[in-house]
Amino acid sequence: MNRIDDDLTNSIEMVSDYLDKALIAEIMEEHKGNIMRWSRLARFEVEAYCRTPVFKCSEFEIVVVGWMPGQFTPIHDHAGSFGAVMVLKGECVEEYYFTNTLGKASLLEAATHRKGEISIVDQSTVHRVGNSLASKIRCITAHIYAPPLGTMGIYEEELTANA
Ligand SMILES: [Fe+2]
Questions:
Q1: Ligand 1: centre distance to CA 162 (Å)
Q2: By CB distance 3.0 to 4.6 Å, which of 55, 59, 61, 142 could disulfide with 16?
Q3: How far apart are CA 123 and CA 78, in angstroms?
């Protein structure tokens, strides 16, 4: 496990008794310059996006993800964790979903996050994240989750007559 930014992890540990998503985003913003340097930790694989764990304790974890064009997560929740995602390189597409009582997901809206932007992951967020095939360049993101991610729920997209 890499541990490359003691200032950041110390900042989070100091306030871990009352961590919330706003505080995580604030701390990420405060350490933006250092977090940007983590792009050198990113790895890429042709088969799928690639997660590189940076730090993990009982209260939070930090992961850097490398995305080739066209690579996306499945539609997923965060098993009760909250957190924040910062784009270190390229652009990150995020699609937000609504899930019905049968567990099927319907697209609500999509957003494109650019270098330096931070997206909040709420405890109720169901989304799909990735790098558009049209981007033609690699994307790198840094993720903080509190508590560390458990077993996430994976959802199928509800197909409509127009799909
Ligand atoms: Fe996610």
A1: 26
A2: 59
A3: 7
